[in-house]
Every structure is written in structure tokens, then in C-alpha cells.
Pep3/Vps18 RING C-terminal domain-containing protein
Amino acid sequence: MPRLVSVHDEGRDMWQVYLDLKEFHTALVHCRDPFQRDQVYLVQADAAFSAKQYFRAASFYSKITYVLSFEEITLRFISNGEQDALRTFLLRKLDNLTTDDKCQITMISTWLTELYLDKINRLLLEDDTASKNQNSEYRSIIQEFRAFLSDSKDVLDEETTMRLLESYGRVDELVYFASLKEHYEIVIHHYIQQGEAKKALEVLQKPTVPIDLQYKVAPDLIMLDAYETVESWMVTNNLNPRRLIPAMMRYSSEPHAKNETHEVIKYLEFCVHRLLNEDTGVHNLLLSLYAKQEDDSALLRFLQCKFGKGRTNGPEFFYDPKYALRLCLKEKRMRACVHIYSMMFMHEEAVALALQVDPELAMAEADKVEDDEDLRKKLWLMVAKHVIEQEKGTKRENIRKAIAFLKETDGLLKIEDILPFFPDFALIDDFKEAICSSLEDYNKQIEQLKQEMNDATHGADNIRNDISSLAQRYAVIEHDEGCGVCGRKILTVGGTSQMTRGYTAVGPMAPFYVFPCGHAFHAQCLIAHITRCGDQTQAEYILDLQKQLTLLGNEMRDSNGTITEEESITSMTPADKLRLQLDDAIASECPFCGDLMIREISLPFVLPAEAEYASTWDITAPQFLGGQKSLPIVI
């Protein structure tokens, strides 16, 4: 009886067949799932492990996922003491893990770090000179370890890794890892401890380094290498010199060679002159360093330099003058003290101190005062007294020097000003020439004063004559001259009491005003015009004066209201004074020719109160009756 053979999926076990034949590559090709591939890798790994090919075995073990656990594989290497093969297995395992296995990646990377450190220590124990041999296995493993740290810096736990490196004493690798993690403070402190200031400064120049770290390590760096540190500061942007003051003060407190360039002074000068720094602390520190130098020329130049000159509403210098004065007094910098006193307008103190240093300096300080003649003379007297009292020559020689000193004052001091400084028993013969010269000067001054008095007398006579001529002024009015306001004749006889109140009547005529331009006005008409056209305040003032005149009821002494030459101002009655005030208020200028008329140009031709009257001027169209027709006119 025939049998049927079913051919279905005959190749499903071919991987096993090839595996038994130890054709591993072909077996992997016929594997259909990860479990089958794990079986192939396991056989290969076990075969290599049995043959003590541990690195090859580690490579195959790292590819196994299911059939053998991670712990079992690692225990095999540990039990055989194959640390290097274990390290290879872990490295290959890391390559096969996905980014989702973060926890496992971190743990394996940390274990690898410890294995690398253990390997390095074992090499050092085996050969003490390994660290000095550039071609040794030691250098190779160091390079491999650093490459591993660089690749794994993002997955390694920072604190754990640094603790491991520190516990194994691997300072260089610790610094390297800190640099990878941008912990620049650790790196810089390491270089400082090693005395490598230049490397530390190179780290600080990196753009990712925070600026605050500059200020933190500045004291140590400037003490380690002042020149390189200052050069680095000068090329660093956004550096605040004020925050570097503690470091600079620490450096300045140390003794320095006489001819050594003071690096802090160099940096502060750079800040002040190049960066135009205005910080008071920076300027004060530079001033204090100048004050401690033997040569005070730099200090004097600094004090005389006006850093704020040309700036609006700003000081000319930025250091504290009181601090500068205390410091210079302490350091015995007397010329600098004189300058500061003068700058603070304490000229007497400046001259007094300058006399202790150099009389020429005192004279220069006394000459600086220009706007106060009395103070200038007082300062020169201080100098004169000092010069006379300090002379050690013969009396006659001292007198000659004193006379010569008078000439230097440009006439500010006279011989009589300095005579009290000489002893009482000095002979007047010694001063004969100077006294005669002084008397001649006084005689010239007296003659000049006489001339000025004569000129003043002539001027007074001219003024009296002018006053007399003004009292006789008059104006000619035609008999038919009309008032500029009401139009009635000025010389018309008559007038109501209302028109003449507060004025003295000119015979039977009403009071009037005549201006140089020829316009004439009745007094009452002029008052009415001014109060109507002027501003409200002026109108109220005029009406108030008129009311006071009416209440007083005094008549003017003269018919035209003027004051005679013989009467003095003190003999004027209250009514006269009020009338003069009224004249000033209404008759200071012609209302038709003065400012009042000019201001009226800007007023509307028709006032708001006259709007109803102005409406009658409107032109309206003619009204035609129904039966009428308009005919065109032909020209």
C-alpha cells in the first residue's frame, strides 16, 4: 500500500543541523527567531570559553539575550578571574543595548569605570615605572579609559563617578572627567595646586565658563602668576574690576622687588585710561598704590588728571578726596596733600602746608585764587611772613629780599603790609626806597580819585540841568485839536465833575494828556479807553487808584498837575503820589502808538458781544414777487 509523505516546512530545523555540524555562520542564516540565534551564540561562546579564548567568548556572550542571564555570564568571567574579558563583555553589551535601557546602561558604565580603574592600579602595582613609559600598556589603557569617559559622560552618574575616581587617586582622570562635565572649578583648582596658572587661565577663557568663577579664583591665580593673570584680565570682556579688588589687594600686600613691574598698577591703569572705568573703589586703590611708591610723580599726575572732564553734570575725578587726603598725610606725600587741599578749595591749608615743603609751591597755590581778592591777599601775606621769618642773612639783605618779594605779587602787597613782620628795631632807612615808591603810588591814586570826583561833580551838574529843562517842557495844542477817543475839542470850556474827579482843573477846562507823538486825550476818556482795551488786572489797578484819589479829595498844587523843582519827593502828599502812580499807569505811552494798539491787531474785528449787530450786515438774496420776471441784461 503506497504511503504519502507530506513536505511542509522541512527547513525549520536546519539551523540545528548546521549547529551540530559547527557551521555557525550557516546556522545563523537559517535561524528564524532570537531564541535560535541565542543558541548558536551560546555554543560558540562556550566553545571559546572552554578553549580559554575569553575575549572571543566575551564577544559572543554579549550577543545573547534570552537563553543565558547577564548575571550568569559575568559570574563565569569573575570566577575565572578574567577581568579584562569581563570588561570586553560589558563594552560589547553596552553597544547592543538600546537607548531605552537607561538604568542598565548607567549601571554597566559605572561597573566599567571601576574595572578600568582596577586595571590601571594593577598595572601600577606590577610595574612602578609604567606611568613613565609612554609605550607601555599603562598608557594604552589610560587612553582607552579616557575615551570611554568621553563617550559615556552623559550616561555616567556624575557624583558616583567622581567619587570612584577620587577613591582610586586618579586625579588626572578626575580633572579630565570634570572638564567633560564642565565642572571648571575643579579643573582650575587642580591646575592651581599643580602651579600651572597658564592652563588654569586657558580654561577660564572658554566661553562656557561663568564669569563669577573668574572672581572666585582670582586671588589664587594672581599670587601664582601675576603677569599671566593680569594679561588674561586685560583681554577678558565684561570683567568688573571692582570685584577683583580683593585679589589685587592681596597681591599688593606682599613685598615686591624695587624694579619689579607692579602688575596690579598696570591693570588698574588699563581700567582707568583705556576702559574709562569710573568706579570709586578702583580709583581709590590705584591712588593708594601710587602713594606707597617712593617716587610721587605718578601720584601727582594721577591727582592732576581730570578723568571726568567734558562730561555734563559729572565730577572731574572719581576717587574720594577725603580718603586721598588721609592716605597722603599718612604716607607723607606733602605735595599731593597740597594739591588735594587746593582741589577742595581749602586754599589756606594748602598754602600753609606748601610753605613747609617749598615756598615756590606756596606762591603758585596763592596765585590760583583769582575770584577773591581778599583771600588772595591773605594767602600772599602768609607767604610773605614765612619768607621774612625764614631768612637767615643780614638784616639789610633780608630787607632787599622782602622788597624783591613784593614785586612778585604784582602790586597786591604793599610795603606797609609786610612791615609788621619785621622786628621793631629795624631802621626805617632800610625801607626808604620802598616807602617812597609806595607813597608815589598812593599819590597817583589820590590824583586819580580827584579826577573821578571832578567827573562825578560835572555829571551831577548835567543831571540837575536836565531836570530843570524837563520841568519846563511844554506842548503846543491847536485850538481845534480833538480828543483821540471822544472827538470833542481838547480846549473846550466846561466838563462835568465826573470827568475831573481826582484831577486839578486847568481853569474851566477838563484835565487832558498830550503825548510827544501829537495825540491828545481827555483824562477821563484816556482812562476809559485804557480800562476797556487793556487787560483785566491793569483795569482794576487804574480804577482802584481813581477811587483812592476821589476819597482823598485833595487838589493838586499846580494847575497842570506837575511837581515844582523846589519841592522834594519827601514833601509829596498822598494824593500827589497816587496821581503819579495813575499817570504811570495810563500815560506811560500813547495808546494809539504803543503796545496797546499793537496787541489790538490780534483781536477780532467783530467782538462776540457784537455778533447780533454784525448779523444785520449780512447780504441776502432779493425777494421777487410772483408776477415779476427777471430779464437778462445784454451789454
Summary: Residues 349-426 form one domain. The chain has a mean pLDDT of 80. The first strand starts at residue 512 and ends at 514.
